[in-house]
Amino acid sequence: MTVVLLDASRPDLIPAGAVALLAQPVAVTEEVHPSLLWQLPSYEIIGLVADDWTKTLVSSNREHPAVVERLKWGEDVVEGSTLPGGKLLKAVELMDRLRRTGPWERRQTHDSLRRYLLEEVYELLDSIDHGTPEELRSELGDLLLQVLFHARIAADSAHGAFDIDDVAQSFIDKVSYRTPGVLSGEHADLDRQIDEWEAAKAAEREDQRVGVLDGIVTTQPALALVQKIFERLAGAGFPVAAVSPSLYRVDVPFRKHAAESVEDDLRRRAIALMNQVRTAEEAAAEDDVTPRDDNTWRKYLGMAYVEEPAEEEVDEDSVEVDSDEVDDVVAVDEDEYDETDVEADPIAEAGDLAPLEGGKLHKVPGMVVREKWSAEGE
Asked: How far is CA 336 from the centre of its chain?
């Protein structure tokens, strides 16, 4: 006879070759889902050993003793193809059961799991650098546990904030929106894909009317924070001359007792830059302007900039303009503009105060504006 093997994660999915076989009385193993049993015209649940070999055996467990016995004797097997992700459904089911019945799992909150999530991320990074494929797989599983756990906790909230399906849909929506060309088969160009991704992210921020640095997590490691800030600012046309060179390097003193934390010092400088960027955006918003180019940023940062001429309606047929007069109006000494050296920070005279050792206070360095400094070659 024949053995029909079902996908345990999709109990209602019947392989095409098994449809006719299930129209007659069959034998089933005990783990077959009730949703399928209700639709069978006639079935008999067997024990560990299949006594009646005249009937088709239906099971979702290839390791079941009755299935193993039949396969050993060479019976035909009908099964559907397995799709990637089927085990994720079992993982969701397991997390749901633990959340409902586990005494420890029932007590956890988003906040109580924070340290575990952080530990798992660092362990995953370590396994990428030094681990075996098996260790990497295990650490990815630990990280998946955190995703499933947080989604399940959210589903328990008073209003059912979201569940694991919403998390998956969020991933689908975001990636589909940001990679349209690749997913549609229109192109497979790396630079174009990156441009589309960044353009979509920028459009999302514009739709939400948020600042260029909004959404950046300031509690991440300081170097990662600075890199993220630079990525955002570079994509928004921010002038590199408005960024202190001190943010481009980290000096770690080689001494027995360091006076202050290099990590905290870099973070304070990065946050000072973020605050100054937001101040400029607020000033621009009063004029209903969104800074997205070098000159506009300069204007609202308090730096030297080129004044845009006021737009006037001019009848081109009735007005003649002398080319020499035009040169006198718009001429700008480019060398003088590029070589401007501002010793004091013209953008923000006052900065946040941050405590140092011994209870003293010092001003967090603002943006050191040096027009002649360049990031080229860094």
From this structure: 43
